[in-house]
Design goal:
Two copies of one chain form a homodimer.
Chain A (H helix, E strand, L loop, with lengths): L12 H8 L3 H8 L7 H14 L5 H8 L4 E6 L5 H14 L5 E6 L4 H13 L4 E4 L7 H8 L4 E4 L9 E5 L1 H14 L5 E4 L6 H16 L9 E2 L5 H12 L7 E4 L2 H13 L9 E6 L2 H5 L5 E4 L2 H17 L7 E4 L2 E3 L6 H8 L1
Parallel strand pairs in A: 1-2, 1-3, 3-4, 4-5, 5-11, 6-7, 6-8, 8-9, 9-10
Antiparallel strand pairs in A: 10-12
Helix pairs in contact in A: 1-2, 1-3, 5-13, 8-9, 10-11
The structure holds a DNA duplex (16 and 16 nucleotides).
Chain lengths: 348, 348
DNA sequence: CTGAAAGCGCTTACAG
DNA sequence: CTGAAAGCGCTTACAG
């Protein structure tokens, strides 16, 4: 009935050694798959482990080796499918690396983020992949980055020299805006996102650049900030639609904002794509699945995650600091929400 | 330039002790906030920690105390918002418990699940919250459950005596079905989910029970299995719509399946709610956000997660085995996809 | 391949 | 409050 857990005395390599009639050292060699041990001995030891229900104590090993096999992934919003896909990509890349990823969700709280990071360091994390929460302090990142390998993902923070994996926000937003302009739109708004985020600034810059190139006005009143969530997008779009002159198209901060915006448009009795064109950013699985399907900028969250993981592994293994940056391609994926279809039907 | 990480010699309590002019024991007492240490000493020690950049080594502490402060959460599909919400609820409940949750995603692979569980045990997890992957072996759970505190969440597995947090699948599905029957539907199908999952069996049983109570036929050909994903739901619905006689309503295995099904219906040129009524199960945030809004069975993933966490904490703290079960209420939330609205408009 | 010894950083009694 | 000692379970040389 009693559990054999950490409570009662655990089975150790010494027990295994006795049971298999070898020394502690030999068991340790078996554990690390050393070729020094002959097959027959190896099997005897493995048999003893099975029989006694041995569980390797990584804590003890880490303590001795002064290095643990975990890496932390700190995610700012796990309920956003984009970050869930990112996390899954990171996990995939870590699969056979000898490191296990531990995920934590900060829910955009810097306080929570500090706790989580501290906890991961206390557990001996060999490195961190960090998607910084809103309003993360530059100094905090710099301090961290001096102490352990770290890769910043998705959200750039100005003033740090940490390794970085982001997507090409400027080009992506520009491309999305150009597409709307090509479709004939002149009155285009930017919806969602928080002004003090660098990602927001980059995307707005891409948007404004494309507008200016086409000699179109960028009115400050037509850039509506919001939390980068579905509800945020819904509210922002509602506000935008309540203005006296409504835009014919909107570039949204990201997909969840765009989906929220689409709902606000529908709620208003308008048709997405015909009355108001919508484009998103991220290309999460949801973008394909909503109706009308969302035209968006694809950044491939999964492969960004893989990149970040590989970058972190290099940094951990090479010991000394080696900073890299990767800017993932941002590719426009035209579906229905931009109304390209409606235009075509009218033209023909 | 050099990192102070685990590579070079780490700062230990001995360094702190020297720097603060106290003994190692005193530092340890400060660490655990013992009232034995007077405030002035405490501050001196805390100051030294700050100055030297001390990081508590939990691995060493766990080793000595033979007990770690982590609990594992093993999730079968983190890309399903339902499980993401569950995970967030678990995290919330663990916030001030002294335990930190480590999440891992098995992506429905039992092989991956075994690896992940082993890794968590090796790291000394004090307990596990497990959402079993498809086809998880009963024997494996039983073995595990004899060795450490464990709470099974969401997916019941027949034959184990482990603690359990699930929702009332039978009643929920019955309620959803009854609602469709009240709306006048006679020809109702069940869409999505994998037949060998107990959750599926429970929900189908609820569905069939309600049908039989209304003396309606349950045709096996009208129970279409699929992976419990959006794509699965899409495919299943497509198959269902290709039958000669199409049902007027469908009860879906869960929300992601329902949303996939809604897309298949729309793709077919039909209108959800008017041509085919749809109800889901879970009430994820997405259910509110799709259009038409999904009528579904609310089970409150977040609070199920909290329950599971509390149950696990009790089990860990009380030392000996104490099995509990919690069956969360399943409440029908009527929105638009069931067509209640259309019916009303016709009636008036 | 094996055995003995030391040590990773902490906590736990225990005596003062 | 403090100090000295032992020990958690492992790995790491090192000598055989």
């Amino acid at each position: 009935m009693a559990r054999e857990g950490r409570k009662s005395r655990a089975v150790t390599i010494l027990d295994i050694a006795k049971s298999a009639g070898v020394s502690k050292s030999t068991v340790s060699l078996v554990l690390k798959r050393s070729p020094l041990v002959k097959e027959e001995t190896r099997q005897r030891v493995a048999g003893a482990m099975d029989a006694l229900g041995y569980v390797y104590n990584r804590g003890a090993a880490s303590l001795r080796r002064a290095r643990a096999d975990i890496v932390g992934m700190v995610i700012n919003d796990l309920s956003n499918p984009f970050f869930a896909e990112l996390a899954i990509g990171i996990e995939r890349a870590l699969q056979n690396s000898g490191f296990v990823p531990f995920i934590a969700n900060t829910a955009e709280s810097v306080v929570r983020q500090a706790e989580v990071v501290r906890s991961m360091r206390e557990h001996g994390a060999a490195g961190l992949i960090l998607c910084p929460a809103l309003d993360t302090d530059v100094a905090e990142i710099s301090r961290l980055e001096a102490r352990l390998p770290i890769v910043l993902a998705i959200r750039r923070i100005i003033g740090t020299r940490a390794s970085l994996v982001v997507s090409d926000n400027l080009a992506g937003a520009a491309r999305a805006t150009e597409h709307l302009i090509e479709l004939g739109h002149r009155d285009i708004a930017f919806v969602g996102g928080v002004g003090r985020m660098v990602v927001f600034q980059d995307r707005v810059a891409g948007f404004a650049g494309a507008m200016e190139k086409a000699r179109l006005a960028v009115e400050p009143a037509r850039t509506i900030e919001s939390m980068p969530t579905k509800d945020g997008g819904f509210d922002a779009m509602k506000r935008l639609l309540s203005l006296d002159r409504r835009p014919t198209a909107v570039v949204c901060f990201n997909d969840v904002v765009a989906i929220g915006a689409m709902l606000a448009i529908a709620r208003q009795g308008l048709t997405v794509g015909r009355d108001v064109a919508v484009v998103g950013f991220d290309d999460t699985a949801e973008a394909r699945h909503v109706s009308p399907a969302l035209t968006t900028v694809s950044v491939d969250a999964g492969s960004l995650g893989e990149r970040a993981a590989q970058m972190l592994l290099r940094q951990i293994n090479e010991g000394e600091r080696r900073l890299e940056s990767y800017v993932g391609e941002a590719r426009l994926v035209v579906r229905e929400s931009c109304g390209a279809d409606f235009k075509r039907r009218i033209a023909s």
